[in-house]
Amino acid sequence: MKIYVDADACPVKDTIVSVARSYNIPVTLVMSFSHFSNKQVEGAETVYVDPGSDAADYRIIQLAKKGDMIITQDYGLASLALGKDCIILHHKGFQYTNKNIEQLLQTRHLSAKARKAGQRTKGPKAFTNDDRKKFEELLRNVLRERIEE
Description:
The protein has helices at about 15-20, 55-65, 75-85, 100-115, 130-149; strands at about 5, 25-30, 45-50, 70, 85-90, 95. The chain is an alpha/beta fold.
């Protein structure tokens, strides 16, 4: 198992690397060259991609194999990764499944449609310390379950 992180806007990179290290699981951070840094994240490989809007998503799908874990807030990437039988987590502490992805994609579609029509829609709620704790607990539980299989 490997963990791939859609890392451009991921607020839990350090948590992911720390938890993965305790389970001896490799982590790959995939991000745009527009977020380039000479500072390496210890315990993770960093893969940079062109700044195109979906370049990181396509690279993650190219790299991921069945049973790998992907951490993203992108519903489209999550949908594609479910098709590859990957484990997909959102940084707010929930797991994407075949049961919830359709509703998430439908909500995204309706919001985009409303914005095109000139309506204002709410953005995501601010990321909190409770979200961080919820995510870490989910990550640890999922990894523990995978290792015990």
